[in-house]
Amino acid sequence: MAIRNIRVDDDPILRKKARPVTEFNERLFELLDDMKDTLYKSGGVGLAAPQVGVLRRVVVMDVSEDKSDYIELINPEIYEEEGSQTGSEGCLSLPGLCGVVTRPMTVKVKAQNRDGKWCLYKGEGLKARCFCHETDHLEGVLYKDRLDEGESLYRTEEE
Ligand code: NI
To answer: What stretch of H or E contains 111?
Structure first.
C-alpha cells in the first residue's frame, strides 16, 4: 500500500472522463488500497481515481469521523435523487478552497465492489453530497462548476 500524489488545480486529468473498470484484478486491488491510504492520510471524505491520475471509474469514501463507513465504489451510478441541500463543499484537488453548492438531500447509488458484485447504497446529507461530488469527478466535473448562482470560491480558514 502506498500514498499516491493528488492532482490539483488545473491538472488536465481532472477534466477527463474516466473509463469503466472491466477487470477486477490485482492491479485494481492495489489502486483501491492505495486510494484508501491516500484518503485517510489526506483527511478527506472521498477520493476518485482521476484525482490520483488514473482515468478509471473508481471511488473510495468515508464520511464518518471514526473510519467506520469506508466504501469502495466501482463503476458507480446514481439512479435516484430526492430533495435538496445547500451547503459548503471542498475538494482535495482544490486545496484551501470551498464554495456553496446545492445537491440532492438523498441519493441512491449502484456500484460494483472489488469482487465485481453490484451493490446498492443510500446516502443522506453529507454522504449524498459526497456520492454526487465523487461521481462528478468521473465525468471530469468539479464542484466549482456547480456553484450556486451568485456564489464564488472562497478560502478556508486552515492553510
Ligand atoms: Ni473532489
So the answer is: strand 106-112
